[in-house]
Structure formats: C-alpha cells, structure tokens
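Sat 14:20. Reprocessing the chain from the morning session after the first attempt stalled halfway. Input below, unchanged.
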Amino acid sequence: MGVHGASAAETGASAAVAPVPADVRARLAVRFGAPAEAWCDALPGLVAELAGRWGLTVRAAGGGGTARVFRCTSGDGREDDRDGGESVWLKLTPDPEVARQEAVALRAWAGLPPVVRVLADDPAAGALLLADVRPGTTLRQRAWRPEEVAPLLGALRSVPVDGLALGTLAERVEFLFDLTERRAPGAATAAAIGRARALAAELADGGPTALVHGDLHPGNVLDGPAGPVAIDPRPSLGDPDFDLVDWAIDGVTDRPGLERRVGALAAGVPGSDPERVLAWCRVGAVVVAAPRAAAGRRDAGTALLLELAGL
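Finished this time. Tokens:
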C-alpha cells in the first residue's frame, strides 16, 4: 500500500497478473497449508474477475506472507501520479475468514484518520479494496518517536466493541504460538511457549476488552497525509496493551531501554498500563525471538528478546 506495497512489487500490468512466484507460494503454504497452492493457481483469474467488477486496472503486484496485494487505478484506468485518489489497493488472501475479520475491524475504525479506509470487500473471495495512503512509506523505513504513534494507539482502542464478530486475543495469541512452533520447532521453543501461554492466559483473563489490531508493528504503519496510518490488522477482542508490544521492543537492546520505551508509550496512550505492557512483551518475545534464533540471528535486540523469552 503506497510505497510500502510497491516497494516489494513485481511492477508492470503484465507482471501483476502473472503466476505467483515460487518463493511467495512457499511462504503462503507455511501460513495456510496445502490449499494455498490451488489458490495461487486460480489467483490470476480471480484478480481479473474482481478488477472487472470494481472497475480497476491492475498496475503491479506484491505481498506474500498472508496475502497478495495489487496496486490498481480506478475509473478510466489512467495512471495519474498527481492525484493519489486514482490509486487503490486490491488485497487477496487464501483464507476468507482472514479477509472477513480484517473488514470487520476496518469498518469499526471507519472515520478514524489513523486507519486505512476499506472501499469495498468480498470476504467469500478473500478480497478487500483499500484506499491509497500517500506518501505511504512505512515507519520501519525511518526513525519514529513514541509521541508520534501514541495518538494512533489511543484511537484504535477507542471504538465500541459490542456486536463485533471477532475472536478473542487469547485465541489470536494461541494461533501465534502454534505458528511459532512450526517455524522454530524444538524443545527449548516448546518450553518457552508453554511459559508464555500461561502468562498470556493470565493477562487475557484479567485485562480490559477493546478492539486489538493484533499485528501493529512499524512495517504495518504508513506515513499518511496527516500522520501515521495503520494497515493490515489481524484483529481480535481483548487487552489493547498488546498493540504496544512491537513499539516497545523495536530497536531496543537492553532492559532499561525497554522500560524507558514502555513508559514513554504508556504516558501517551490513555488507559495503558506499563506493567501489563512489559508482561505482554515477555509473551511477544517468544513469537519474535524464536524464529530469529532459528535463523541464526545474534544481534543485541534479539539477545534481549531471547532473555525475555527464556530461550
């Protein structure tokens, strides 16, 4: 989406409807299992059908871990770099439930400037049509400040949750643990996950309930015209302090630095609890650190996460 989506795109209209590359197929298979292969085979036809229905011209393709994302132009199909309103983003996932949940969350946040707008959706097809965000660079591409992201974090937890058809944060965390075990198998990972499951259950049982983004890291927040804009939620209902974890650990290399970062974030987000954020950091450290360790990473930030995770 914006530069974020295009940076990893296979550019050009012909590339956008080309077969899904082998490396992307492999990542989708890890996430969604064997059915992802048939979905990849059928994707060019699905893109063509949706483009016709919604009046789109496909310009480029990208994504890979959980979805394919297509940069499109709407209306008469002309490229018009002078007007960001001409660009839209078609997002497709092999799992219709993933698309449905994302649409539920984005519609609950409708009208909040810090969240991308959903223009149309077809959950049965695993499809979302999303507004463009300009300039669209991710916060991962530059230095960011806690006071800059605090308004976004506060806005996400501000909407009513009654009637939202979403699972619980406890269920979302269980899924993340299961995925981590597949990505980084082993006795040490299993033991650390066991401890983290117990802590997560304790936090989930005693915490507040709000709409949680669930995958809110600097790569999923874009520079927008009026400030940071969140994209790509993996939403659930539960303790919104979970959404502070990735911001707390990003770039931090020691415990005092982690505590300072948590304090700075919590000071700007009404209702957040620094002690709960630190506890969620211990839970999230397992999910982030185990795959890093399996890949051989030994940087200072990973070392801190391994310590927090007990790995």
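The CA atoms of residues 172 and 226 lie 31 Å apart.
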